[in-house]
Automatic annotation (TrEMBL):
It comes from Oxalobacter aliiformigenes. It is a multi-pass membrane protein. CDD domains: MFS_LmrB_MDR_like. The chain crosses the membrane at residues 14-33, 53-73, 80-98, 104-127, 136-154, 166-183, 204-223, 229-250, 300-319, 331-353, 359-386, 398-419, 439-459. Residues 15-464 form the Major facilitator superfamily (MFS) profile domain. PROSITE patterns: MFS. PANTHER family: BLR6921 PROTEIN, MAJOR FACILITATOR SUPERFAMILY MULTIDRUG TRANSPORTER MFSC. The keyword Transmembrane applies. This is Multidrug transporter subunit MdtD.
Length: 479
């Protein structure tokens, strides 16, 4: 790894804040939008139950660009790419706020997604290159705090802006934060040398893997939102699977593939990647579905819907402090096997929500779901990376980040497709019919999450059960 000059004390203190600003924008954007979707749909003359393309466009773009983020940073310089990412995300936010139609917003969300895909991994790379190893845990923990704050304030802030200003402000709010990030990056971020030799980028592998992600998601999206004929959409999904098989075969015969097949020789990594993919098909759609249920089915205002989502984040914060201790005591296999079943049951329990349900009971369900969901994220992410060598860690973490974004976008697409089947193309449904359609959708998603339990029983026995002599909380991708 190339040596970088030591940071002066002032820069060493300010640089984590610069990276945290980018993390905050990306994490806030992931939660602030969902509460605003029904109001946006009304203003854009669109069925509110068919707004998932706004969410999927961003998630899928992030998944597509992440594999290239490290190579781009090494090729063009970490500071330049990080600055470009913040500027593009900010410009995309402005364009989204000014968009007159759903189609234009989707296009602008793709621009946002390119910026967001570069901000987080390159920001993490800034820390890895700028600070000595003994400071990494402290600095990385600091910059991931926005990962907790963003989801905490996002739904409520989104509801507040929609109710007392307009939905455009959920995008405009990124602009001053982005300008601060741009100016701070220009002033305080040093030019960091890349680590080692710059190898050629695996373009063919990138095209094959991207084609797999794109066609699978577009096939599901075509069935869910666009109500296109099943036959061509199924063929599109089959083509995506063929691209994945083609990538796996291709990657075996080149020296430096996009993602090395050798990663899957590590048992826990293979189980963790599959578990992340399938478990998130169930819970990845929850932040998208629940604000819609609260507003369209139960008649909540955007502000009240946002406030009602806060207990989920509070539950997630509670679980963060307990996750490592529970894994150290019981091991990953037992924790994830039991927790995945509980996750499926909790998602299914959302099917009982109705106008007649006591509000306090609903908040208890939201809080417990937040605890179990956060435990699932933390344990899944950590078990995926825990057995990788230093040489495998970067590639493995990159693939994990891609799979997380891909599975969440697929989860939203699948949930929308299921909901579309139960509601049909009509937007003129009675509230009770809408609630019944949501209930059936939650039951299906709960089943999807629960069956992924069969994946986690293959975790290496005893993994995580015996803590190291000086245990430190594992650093892994959040959500």
């Amino acid at each position: 790894m190339a040596d970088n000059p030591a940071l002066d004390p002032k820069t060493a203190k300010i640089l984590p804040w610069v990276v945290a600003v980018a993390f905050f924008m990306q994490m806030l954007d992931g939660t602030i939008l969902n509460t605003a979707l029904p109001t946006m749909a009304k203003d854009l003359h669109t069925n509110p139950l068919q707004m998932q393309s706004v969410v999927i466009a961003y998630m899928l773009t992030v998944a597509l660009i992440i594999p290239a983020s490290g190579w781009l940073a090494d090729k063009f310089g970490i500071k330049r790419v990080f600055l470009f990412a913040i500027a593009l995300f900010t410009a995309g936010s402005l364009a989204c706020g000014l968009s007159p139609t759903l189609e234009v917003i989707v296009a602008c969300r793709i621009i946002q997604g390119i910026g967001g895909a570069l901000m987080v991994p390159v920001g993490r790379l800034v820390v890895l290159r700028a600070y000595p190893r003994e400071q990494l845990v402290t600095v990385l923990s600091f910059i991931t705090i926005p990962g907790l704050i963003g989801p905490l304030i996002g739904p409520t802030l989104g509801g507040f802006l929609v109710e007392y200003a307009s939905w455009h402000w959920i995008f405009f709010i990124n602009i001053p934060v982005g300008i601060i990030g741009i100016l701070s990056t220009m002033k305080y971020m040093p030019y960091l040398a890349r680590g080692g030799e710059l190898y050629p980028f695996d373009r063919i592998g990138f095209i094959l893997f991207s084609a797999f992600m794109l066609t699978i998601t577009l096939g599901l999206e075509g069935i869910g939102e666009l109500h296109l004929a099943y036959a061509p959409m199924v063929l599109l999904i089959v083509f995506g699977i063929v691209c994945l098989v083609g990538y796996v075969l291709y990657a075996r015969y080149i020296p430096r593939p996009l993602f090395s097949p050798d990663l899957f020789r590590v048992r826990n990594f293979s189980v963790g990647i599959l578990g992340n993919l399938f478990a998130r098909l169930g819970n990845g759609a929850m932040p998208f579905l629940t604000p819609l249920l609260l507003q369209i089915g139960l008649g909540y205002s955007p502000m009240n819907a946002g406030l009602s989502m806060v207990p989920m984040t509070i539950g997630a914060v509670i679980a963060k402090s307990a996750a490592t201790r529970l894994v150290n005591r019981f091991g990953y296999r037992l924790i994830l096997t039991i927790n995945t079943l509980l996750l499926g049951l909790m998602i299914a329990l959302f099917s009982t929500i109705s106008k007649e349900m006591n509000y306090g009971l609903m908040m208890v369900i939201f809080t417990v779901f937040g605890i179990i969901n956060s435990m699932q994220f933390t344990a899944m992410n950590t078990v995926t990376l825990v057995d990788l060598s230093d040489e495998q860690a970067s590639s493995g973490n990159s693939l994990l980040s891609v799979i997380m974004q891909l599975s969440m976008s697929m989860g939203v697409a699948i949930a929308a497709a299921i909901l579309g089947e139960f509601t049909g193309a009509s937007s003129l449904l009675q509230a009770r019919d809408v609630i019944a359609a949501f209930a059936k959708t939650y039951l299906c998603l709960g089943f999807l999450a629960a069956i992924s339990t069969v994946i986690f029983i293959h975790i290496r026995p005893g993994s995580g059960k015996v803590p190291p002599k000086n245990p430190q909380p594992p650093v892994s991708a959040d959500h």
